[in-house]
Amino acid sequence: MNKVLVTGGTGYIGSHTVVELIKAGYETVIVDNLSNSELFIVDRIEQITGVRPKFYQIDLCEKEMVEELFKIESGINAVIHFAAFKAVGESVREPLKYFRNNNLSLINLLEVMDERGVKNIVFSSSATVYGQPEILPATEVTPLQKALSAYGSTKQMGEEMLEKVSAATEIKSIALRYFNPVGAHESALIGELPVGIPNNLMPFVTQTGIGKREVLTIFGNNYATSDGTCIRDYIHVVDLAKAHVKACERLLQAKTEENYEVYNLGTGKGTTVLEIVNAFERVTGQKLNYIIGERREGDVESLYAETKLANLKLGWKAELGLDDMLSSAWAWEVKLHEGTVNA
Q1: Backbone torsions φ then ψ of 12, nearest 5 degrees
Q2: Can you tell me which residues the record assigns to a coiled coil (predicted)?
Q3: Where in the sequence numbering do the catalytic residues fall?
């Protein structure tokens, strides 16, 4: 049985990926410093899968901790690296916090992997690396624009590190550029669990729908789009998780054609913020109180994916639609509101 280390494995995307890895027969080990996640998620993964993954509370910026982990957990075959700060707005205000955490953690991880002979890594990248492309949809060869945020810069730097390290060592890497993950597991046992004020649209939508927040602010309605609001490519988190399993398989079965590969993960369809609001009201029957605010620094106008390469090379395709995303996100929010999530 192949052993996969998942950094940030109690986080939103990480926890769903651990579930899919276990379902696919992998032994999983989770590392997380719990700065933006909760320990009870490990219990929930066990409830869903019947298997309890090993868990270590470690800060990857402390290299000694990383070295000790790889000594204890010998035989790791692959790493999926999620652990990173991810709030675009915060990264604009506190760039050094993001450069230190996101870059140093990856450097430490790659150094120890190289020392220990661990040769496969899947990297959690982002469509943020594209900035605002001149031509849409964005493909893997779309020229990267200057990042609008420190978060985007760290993802571009992460990809650059992997490309250079994979050219100079035996480490093979796949960078997965996510578009906009939303939704929750069908069990409503795990989902997006932001600490404090959410940084993504969907938690704001569901928290406003449940009454936790009085109003949803839509940042700008004067973009050159059909209704003036930003366009994004929303992808169900379970579809996204399954893509990581496919990426691991490609690395472990030595199917990669290059030492470093990049894939877009999205649906290929753009949806405006107002379309999300209207679809949420239709799917859940909940009216949303929203206002139009100023544009948010760091936001691009429109971004959606071309996913043919992932369809062809990874054998993966997004299967769940917008209604699935919204209904599962709402079911998760209802459980949170009822206080049954971490009971």
Answers
A1: -60, -65
A2: none
A3: 151
Q: What DSSP character marks residue 54?
A: E
Assess if residue 338 is contained within a domain.
no
DSSP string for residues in 206-239: HHHHHTSSS-EEEE-S-SSSSSSS-EE-EEEHHH
Domain count for the chain, please give it. Answer: 1
97 is in which domain, residue-wise?
A: 3-183+234-267
Residue 111 within any structural domain of the chain: yes
Q: What is the pLDDT of residues 215-244, one digit of tens each?
A: 999 999 999 999 999 999 999 999 999 999
In angstroms, the CA 159 to CA 242 distance is: 21
| Closest alpha carbon to 127 in 183, 184, 185, 181 | 181
Section 118-130 average pLDDT: 96
Distance in angstroms (rounded) separating the CA atoms of residues 162 and 1: 26
Instruction: Output the pLDDT for position 340.
Output: 62
Q: Which of 180, 139, 167 is nearest to 299 (CA)?
A: 180
Q: Among the listed ranges 86-90, 257-261, 310-314, which one has the minimum average pLDDT value?
A: 86-90
The model's pTM: 0.96
Q: Note whether residue 75 is domain-resident.
A: yes
- Which CATH number goes with the domain that contains 136? 3.40.50.720
| CA 134 and chain centroid, separation | 24
| Angle in degrees, 0-180, between the axes of helices 40-49 and 12-23, rounded to the nearest 10 | 30
Write out the two tokens for 152.
Answer: 């985007």
Other beta carbons within 10 angstroms of residue 111's beta carbon come to 14
What residues pair up with 248 in beta bridges, in sequence order? none
Q: Are 330 and 188 in contact (CB under 8 A)?
A: no
Number of other CB atoms surrounding residue 173 within 10 Å: 29
Residue 330 lies in a domain: no
In angstroms, rounded to a whole number, what is the distance separating the alpha carbons of residues 17 and 28? 10
pLDDT value of position 102: 98
